[in-house]
Amino acid sequence: MTSPRQNTQQEMSAEIQAIASTYRQSLAAGAAPLTQPSLDYAPYRSSILRHPTKNLHHTDPETIELASPAFGHQDVSPLEADLTIVHNGEPQGERIKVAGRVLDGDGRPVAGQLVEIWQANAAGRYIHKRDQHPAPIDPNFTGVGRCITGADGSYAFTTIKPGAYPWKNHINAWRPAHIHFSLFGSEFTQRIITQMYFPGDQLFPLDPIYQSIVDQDARDRLVATYNHELTSPEWSLGYNWDIVLTGPKRTWTETEALGEDGEHHG
Amino acid sequence: MDNLTPTPGQTVGPFFGYALPFEKDNELAAPGRPGSIRLQGTVTDGVGAPIPDAILEIWQPDADGNVVAETGSLVRDGYTFTGWGRASTGNTGRYTFTTVNPGATRPGAAPFIAVVLFARGLTNRLFTRIYLPEDTAALAADPLLASLPEERRSTLLASREPDGGLRWDLRLQGDGETVFLEFDGGRHAPAQGA
């Protein structure tokens, strides 16, 4: 494939704005808001040859798709939720706690399911061998964590605030700081991988990956909230982020609809 | 009861390779055990180039068609069938699992393996299915397959290899583009985005 001249950020931002403007017009004309990213989003250059051109095919989920793989404490140690204790020394950077709940579309907790996270270090460098960004590797930080959600759908990770990092989508392209999240629901149809961002990031309007979600309300759902109540004195800053999975697609009984602790949430 | 809007997905990005893979992630059944088969194929893009940074997960019933609820996928003991596995594509876009042939979950149902795909450049996950090729009556009666034109239907059928394994290629875009699924009741963006 011939590689066209790389665009400047200004050209990229103009592309992003043009798509945003078309989307706002469609909303004004009465179209339903899009709650998920556009698969065909040319500003994210790698998506051009990696999106289906045919519409997704509607179907009813079948038996296996209405269940989900099971994970338990044999799979994940509670220590894996603290990304700052993996090595002998303290990692560099701003220590944070990220906590929230995994819910289904009806607001019910997703209990006992696997959450996986990965991220860059405080300098914006991934441990991954293909990351060529000349920022320092932190020998005390790998940036991988896992946990199993509690009965109320809760999760909590202790980690380091990741740095922004450059990528080569266009000239001077920088990703806003983010943590990758991988989640399972009670049905396979709810499987999702996404990214959590930090409030007030000035890179949001410039980033084609964040902007591939064309709806502002939908994009906002990926931004954590600073929570001083979750901040620990002399120790770490706290961020809250709840995740809502699609569905469920099946009808639940009254008993199943109640949390294990009998609580009504939300 | 609340009716909440789902959190949007995002691309898995390029750097999942040190985070998502784990030892024996693609071995739902230990290689060489009776009944274990190899499932393999290539993931390609819109110009037919292999995608080296994709990751697939499969979720399937056991050989008798039972949906299992066994934990232990992340720390495999070599005996317990958990029904779930994960495989990254390599430089050649190729993925491999060892598993068992899924059974029919009810009499007359066409056995299939559920698949979810993630990749750099793919803004959100895609769901699809891999059907076993043999039971032509069950395949003909399958509601999803019956709703597809022949040339698209064939993208969901594995082929059987001489060694008993399954071959199934995934084409993300273009000629022979794999059928990807939206489950009814979901609120996903259409493929034709903004």
Automatic annotation (TrEMBL), chain A:
Its EC number is 1.13.11.3. The keyword DNA damage does not apply. The keyword Ion transport does not apply. Pfam families: Dioxygenase_C, PCDO_beta_N. Residues 98-126 form the Intradiol ring-cleavage dioxygenases domain. GO terms for molecular function: protocatechuate 3,4-dioxygenase activity. Belongs to the intradiol ring-cleavage dioxygenase family. This is Protocatechuate 3,4-dioxygenase subunit beta. It comes from Arthrobacter silviterrae.
